[in-house]
Write a structure and sequence with these properties.
Layout (H helix, E strand, L loop, with lengths): L3 E5 L3 H13 L3 E5 L2 H10 L4 E5 L7 H9 L6 E5 L4 H9 L4 E4 L4 H15 L10 E4 L2 E4 L4 E4 L2 E3 L3 H12 L4 E2 L1 H9 L9 H13 L9 E4 L3 E4 L2 E2 L2 E2 L2
Parallel strand pairs: 1-2, 1-3, 3-4, 4-5
Antiparallel strand pairs: 6-7, 7-8, 8-9, 10-12, 11-12, 13-14
Helix pairs in contact: 4-8, 6-7, 6-8
Length: 236
């Protein structure tokens, strides 16, 4: 299957290089060089993922990401300036699935795109097609949906995978590196803050009081533990 990717990037040389490389890998890339035409195309056609630069001539990629997330859960990979940690954190907080700092390896871009598209596809990770239940919290692996008390909660594909990985390891303390390894299948730097941002977003969706979490608990200096007993009952 040839995946259709929408790329919003004002550097035409970079867009051409990415289009050629990903094209050789069986992906069809359509570049747009400003935010407005890119957003218009996203609404008018069907796409499998978005490659989104932060710096754009009309308005920045953060605003584009925010607008996309207001109506779509399409996978978004943001391109950020090298060393700009805040760009990565803001992008993830706004709902981006992943980020890649410039300059980047086209091979790594391809790998990350395949990963977020696979995570977004129902059954793409070949997880057991059943629901995990923790009190009022239900994690539906087949439909890739999360519900609390029967009410659906919005998570990005990457956030769903983090939550699901934690649920499958309920009661165990998972370091940040271990969590990212479970989800991405690759090692990340120990001080990568993206996992903390995702956990914060997940808590906002599933906790009754995100400031006093009872489902995902921080273990200072070690990582996080997903409570096996929630709402007064054990997991099912």
């Amino acid at each position: 299957m040839n995946h259709r990717l929408l790329m919003i990037e004002d550097d035409r040389n970079l867009a051409a290089m990415v289009s050629e490389y990903l094209g050789d890998a069986g992906m069809i890339v359509t570049p747009f060089y400003a935010a407005i035409p890119g957003l218009q195309a996203l609404e008018q056609e069907k796409w499998d993922a978005v490659i989104l630069d932060v710096m754009l001539p009309d308005f920045d990629g953060f605003e584009v990401c925010r607008r996309i997330r207001s109506y779509s859960d399409i996978p978004i990979l943001m391109l950020t300036a090298k060393g700009e940690e805040m760009d990565r954190v803001v992008g993830l907080e706004l709902g981006a699935d992943d980020y890649l700092p410039k300059p980047f390896s086209p091979r790594e871009l391809l790998a990350r795109l395949r990963a977020i598209i696979r995570r977004h596809t129902p059954g793409g990770l070949n997880k057991q097609n059943k629901s995990l239940n923790f009190g009022r919290l239900e994690i539906d692996s087949q439909a890739r949906q999360v519900r609390v008390g029967g009410q659906p909660k919005e998570l990005t594909g990457h956030q769903f995978d983090i939550l699901e990985a934690m649920a499958h390891n309920a009661g165990l303390v998972l370091s940040r590196d271990r969590l990212m390894d479970l989800v991405r299948g690759e090692e990340l730097e120990a001080f990568d803050r993206s996992i903390d941002v995702h956990i914060s977003r997940i808590r906002a969706a599933i906790e009754d009081d995100p400031k006093k979490p009872c489902r995902i608990i921080t273990v200072r200096g070690s990582g996080y533990v997903f409570a096996s007993k929630q709402d007064g009952s054990e997991s099912l």
